[in-house]
Structure formats: C-alpha cells, structure tokens
Amino acid sequence: MHAYRSHTCADLALADVGQTVRLSGWVHRIRDHGGVLFIDLRDHYGITQVLCDGDSPVFAEVEKLRSEWCVRIDGTVKARDTDLINPKLPTGEVEVYIRDMEVLGAAEELPLMVFGDQEYPEETRLKYRYLDLRREAMQDNMKLRSDVVASMRQRMWDKGFREYQTPIITASSPEGARDFLVPSRLHPGKFYALPQAPQQFKQLIMVSGYDKYFQIAPCFRDEDPRADRSPTDFYQLDLEMSFVEQQDVFDTIQPVLAGIFEEFGKGRKVDDVWPQISYADAAKWYGTDKPDLRNPIKMQDCSEHFRGSGFAIFAKLLEQDGTEVRAIPAPTGGSRKFCDRMNAFAQKEGLPGMGYIFWREKTADAVAQELGITVKEAQAKLKSGEVKGGMEAAGPLAKNIGPERTEAIRTQLGLGVGDAAFFLGGKPKAFEGVAGKARVVIGDELGLTEQDRFAFAWIVDFPIYQRDDETGELDFDHNPFSMPQGGMAALEGDPLAVRGYQYDLACNGYELVSGAIRNHQPEIMFKAFELAGYGEDEVNKRFGGMVSAFKFGAPPHGGCAAGIDRIVMLLADEANIREVIMFPMNQRAEDLMMNAPSDPDNAQLRELHLRVVKEES
C-alpha cells in the first residue's frame, strides 16, 4: 500500500465497503458521541467521515487529535445506516473505521478556524493565508481560477495562437502607472523595471513575423489598491495579431470570453450581443466608461427644459459654455422618501444635493384647486369616479419650472405615475462620476439591475488627447500607442477631436479588457507624440527599440489584454479581488505573511551601490 493513501477523501463509495483503505488529510471536525469519535477527514478533493471507538487499538491516540492536525489513517470501509447517510457529501453513504493512525503534522492553537463560516479580519486572513486557503470557499476560488486559465489557454490554441513568454526584467516604460524599479548590480546607478504589461514586446513579436501571440502574462504596477485591483501584480490574457482591424480583434476574443463565462458562470445568462458604445456616449448615458448594462437606466440630456426656467440654479448654470443638465430616470422610485435618500447620497459624494421630480396620482388638494371646490368635495368626486385624478409632478423642481416643462421632461424620459427622475448640472466632467454612481445605486435599490447575468459592451472611439484645465497644455488622454482614426490626416486637425482605434470591454460595471490597433508607422507615431509635447529625440530615448523595429517593415497589428483576476472575481461572485488571488498583498501593498517589503541589509545595499535616505519625520 502507498505510504500515505490508497484513495483520496472524495473517492470512497458503497462499492468499496469491506475494503481496507489508507487516507491522509486534515482533521476538519471532531464529534464525540459518548465514546465514539466521528472525524471529518479532509483533503483537497473532499471529505470522508472516519470513526473510532474503544475497540480500536489507536483510540487513545485518536482522542488527542485536534482541528487541522494532518494525519494518516488505515481502516475498513463500512456502509452507513440508512438514516445516517449524508446526501451533501459524495462519500456520504460510507465511513471508515480507524484501525491504525499516524500523526503527520500536529497543529498548534489556530489563529483562525478552517471549519465553518466565521468572519476574520483581513489582516489575520492574510498573515495566516495558508490556513485561510484551506477553507472550502477559498479552495473553490483557487480551483476555479486554475480551471479558467487552463480553459483560456486551450481556447487560444484552438484559435491558432501560440504562447510566447516575454521578459520580466526590462526597461522602464510609461504605461499609465508607476514602475517597480530593480537596481542593477552590474551597472551601478542604473535600474531595470518590472513590466507593467508586455506591450512593447508583443508588438515586436508581430514585427518579427509571428502573426498570432498570446500569453498568460504577469504584470507589475505600483498602484493604489482598490477592491477590484491588486496594488502590485496581476495576470492577464495577453494577445496580439498581425494584419487585423478592430473588428477582427473583437471577433477573436469575444467567443473566448463568452465561452469562459458560459463554462464557469454556473448557469447565469451570458449576453449574445455585445454592443459597441462610443466613449462619449458611455459617459453621457452611464457616467462611466465601464457601464453595467444589467441596469436599464440610461441618462439623458434635459438642458433645454431648464434653460430660462424658474429654477435659477440650473438656468444660470446653462448660461455658461460647456454646461448641461442631465437626468437620471428612476422607474418605480416615485416617493419622497426615496428621493430624499438619493439627495442625501449626492451630499455624501460632495455635491450640494441632487434635484428631483416624482410623479404621483393627483391629490384631492390639487383637484380642489383646479376645480375651485373644497377638498372634501374633491375627495367625493374622486371616490365616485366623477373626476379622474390623473397625474401630477411633485418635488421642489416641479414647483419651480411649472407643469409644462415637467410634462415635457416626463415625456422625454418615458416615465409615469410612481416614477422619478434625478438631475445634476454643470460641466459634465465635474458631475459624471457622481451621476454614474447614482445610476448604480438607483438601479440596485429599486431592484432594476438584473442579477444572474453577464452583460458585455465594447467601449470604442476613445479620445487620444486631453487638455490640462490648469496649464492648457495638451497631453495623452489614453493609450499613446493607439493608431489615430484617420491616420496622419487626423493629426493635422483639432487634436481634441482625434479618436483612436482603442477599445475596452466592460462587464457588469468592471473593465475586463483593454486594447488597441497599434500605431505602427514611425512618422505617424512621431507626429502623435509631438502634439503631446514629446520631441523625436524623447520618443527614441523612451521607445527606441520599438521605433527602430517599425522602420523595418512593420505589419499593421493590434490586440488586447483581459484581466484574469477580475474575470475570476466575477465568476466567483466576489466583491474583492483578493478573494481570488492565492497570496495577495493587503491594502497597503504589504505581504503580512512573508513580511514584504523588508529592509535590505548593508551588504546588499553596498553590492547594489545604493544608500537608503531615511524620510524626515
């Protein structure tokens, strides 16, 4: 018999009754039933119930066992009594009577329990991650992650791609985040960088004539942490293709990702149609470039209804250039209580408030005022049906702008009795972020956002440039390596009107994919950087290897990268990305388990020709 096991803890069934078996695993749970000890023995594959009583030669040793001790047991497989079968376990029809046991690894008092669903502080979970990872939910998440990556690889191979590895130690290259620098021992005073992405290398692979590349690529960025982003490193499905246009990239990656979500989405609906929405429209309709399309709310420009109106705040705002008033429809949100709650939400987000109108059945007071009768008479007419109450607009905005304008707004937004609309005004960039958050909150609170669905949208036509509000200088707004739509001719006109062949894929409010058709022509690249204030010498200094390669017959090429961590986070239905990363950093980019970052010793510093300057307190 094998030294540690003849079966895993998920293998045994009724067909094995009577066999002598050997199992190894961890003591998951112990139950003492009056001299009979029942133990749930757990390994990576499952759980088997083992038991021991006073007749067993190792009963005294089994009594000493505690949670999470690692043990090997030998025993006989027995069928459970019918009323003791556990249908929740694959091995629930059998149990193993212990005849011999060996403690492979005793455990001290546990800082966190593996059995059960107790909540522990994140610092405790990360410091003792090896225990946290033993929990069933974490085992499931990590197996899911591994299976997703394996499926991605196979799907890419099936599409004619080959996997190539790119360097981990390279030169610093601005990709929109801070680099992790690595000092060079052989070249004192110089530094390598960990790659933020394989961007330049995968483009060079295309120049080298390999046509279709992919990689499950580690990427390193010194970023501020968020719930959906690791502060140090992450993995992406990275791909690049030659002789392609934007739609070719979409047609390649869409079935790969759709297949992943169908395979691992546990029956949740995966949208067949992935609309293409311009960056400008996404901001206007959803307040974000990663909209959650499970939420049906689409914001609309209602500026004309407030221009010259009795609501002075909006009317005066609209006299300024570049301002507008945007409405957020809220079907079924037509109560003063809900409207007040959303107004308070806006105030928490740093705004003075959020205007609103809601529509309701006309009150007896309103009918009495219209007909010039008493409220009591109006109530009687409404009750008898002699007078139809109809609908009225309520709220401070409605009183200020009057019934004609409120009716025009209602008609434009397609709302009715029991519905509401919220309004924000000013320069769109100043309020779009809050408007987008409000849209999400409204959709969630009113039950409008469809759960159990993965809704995808391509965001396209990104602006390449932006102008700094303070300095007035032009700089890149998005990926500087994107081919401008219209090529060189587009760069001769208004830079702020230039759109790039750049695209993101949004799913359920998260950015899953980012990519572009690349700017592979040196003269167009030099011009694009020149507009942003980078001369030819600077471009050659920063991107010399790639620019040089483009002078030797570069093919048109493009690609994208899909964030594996976020994909698994969505599939696992987790709100925090650290739940699907095996050994993540905490919010302060610290590894509490391995004590990183750590202080180098003097010998290391001398070898690297470095000196640490202590920060002044």
How much β-strand is present in the residues? 15-25%
* Largest sheet entry: 8 strands, mixed
Number of strands: 26
Query: Helix- and strand-based class?
Result: alpha+beta
Strand order of the largest sheet: 6-9-10-26-25-24-19-12
> What's the rounded overall pLDDT mean?
93
Give the CA-CA distance, first to last residue: 64 Å
The unreliable regions are none
Alpha-carbon Rg, integer: 32 Å
Number of H/I helices: 19
Concise structural overview:
This protein is α+β, with helices and mostly antiparallel strands and 617 residues long. A hairpin with a 6-residue loop joins strand 21 and strand 22 (474-476). The protein is globular, with a radius of gyration of 32 Å.
Architecture overview:
The protein is an alpha+beta fold and 617 residues long. Strand 21 (465-467) and strand 22 (474-476) form a beta hairpin. The longest helix is centred in the first third of the chain and has 23 residues, at 136-158.
